[in-house]
Amino acid sequence: MARHHVSTTVNGEPVDFLCETQQTLLDVLRDELRLTGSKEGCSSGDCGACSVTIDGRLVCSCLVLGVEAEGHEIETIEGMAEGEALHPLQQKFLEEAALQCGFCTPGFLVAGKALLDRNLNPTETEVRYWLAGNLCRCTGYDKIVRAVMDTAAEMRGA
């Protein structure tokens, strides 16, 4: 099969890779770029475990082809922390025990950060709506929602 050359930006760094036409962005991230934080849960866009942002827009990377990444800015869970310093949302997830098995956690963190990048004063309903595309089988969601709400309050200085 023909492989296509793609030039893009991943977590602020210019990246070039080769991928087959049918390869998903999730497969490219995990298999070609070795960024394994995004998880494959359903392969149909229903669970959110593979959430990333493309040009600031939250997407399921299992539903995007790798060739579609050409020229776009992709942010993954690996780009959330700055060096050893966790993003405030990552820190809140730890402090408030908003995770258990951890499989869904990267997707929730990416989705929560995408919300906070747009709105530092979300209502609980807005947080729940924004995270509705992410499924968790362990936590019951309340701690996740609380962590996003508390991070928003902290980031806006409330």
What is this structure's SSE topology?
Elements: E1 3-10, E2 13-20, H1 25-32, E3 51-54, E4 57-60, E5 73-75, H2 88-95, H3 105-118, H4 124-130, H5 142-155
Parallel strand pairs: 1-5
Antiparallel strand pairs: 1-2, 3-4, 3-5
Catalogue the unreliable spans.
Answer: none
Q: Please tell me how large the radius of gyration is.
A: 16 Å
Spell the H/E element sequence.
EEHEEEHHHH
Biggest beta sheet summary: 5 strands, mixed
Helix content: 25-40%
| Silhouette | globular
Q: What is the CATH architecture annotation of the largest domain?
A: Roll
Superfamily (CATH H level) name of the largest domain = Beta-grasp domain
Percent range for β-strand residues: 15-25%
Q: Span from first to last CA?
A: 55 Å
Question: How many structurally independent domains?
Answer: 2
* Count of discrete alpha- or pi-helical segments spanning 4 or more residues: 5
CATH class group of the largest domain? Alpha Beta
Number of strands: 5
For the largest beta sheet, what order do the strands appear in spatially? 2-1-5-3-4
The overall pLDDT, averaged over residues, is 95
Say what the CATH topology of the largest domain is. Answer: Ubiquitin-like (UB roll)
Helix/strand/pairing class, anyone? Answer: alpha+beta
